[in-house]
Amino acid sequence: MQTQRNTPTSTPSKRRVLGPCSHILSAAHTGSWRLERPSVDESACIRCGTCARYCPTACISVSKEGAPLSFDWDYCKGCGICANECPKHALKMIPEGSGD
Fold it and tell me: CA angle, 50 as apex, 41 and 39 as ends, to 5°?
């Protein structure tokens, strides 16, 4: 199995993009494709960073200092991988445009 490698992009330097498909998806502001978005239950979130590690476009930032998770909505596709991988089920997918 071939090992994925870091691919340079024109996106901000904090991005870690792996594989050719991820490179294409992170090359443009494609957040408008999103039908659902992740919502964080701050009381359940332990800021372990699992969601950020599994995000295919690296659009989640986790701060250990107690700040809430931050999402780069220009790149979030609403795929739900972050919600699926969260060990504490602190993320849930909600319809885009809802007031939550």
Answer: 25
Residue 97 has a CB neighbour count (10 Å cut-off) of 8
* Contact criterion met (CB below 8 Å) for 16 and 6: yes
The two tokens of residue 97 are: 């445009």
In this predicted model, what pLDDT tens digit does every residue of 22-63 receive, in sequence order?
A: 555 555 676 677 899 999 999 999 999 999 999 998 999 998
What is the model's pTM? Answer: 0.68
Contact 62, 49 (CB under 8 A): yes
Q: Are 81 and 54 in contact (CB under 8 A)?
A: yes
- Alpha carbon 37 to chain centroid, angstroms: 10
The strand pairing partners of 46, in sequence order, are none
CA dist 26 and 92 (Å) reads 22
The rounded radius of gyration (Å) of the Cα atoms in the chain is 14
3-state DSSP assignment of residue 71: strand
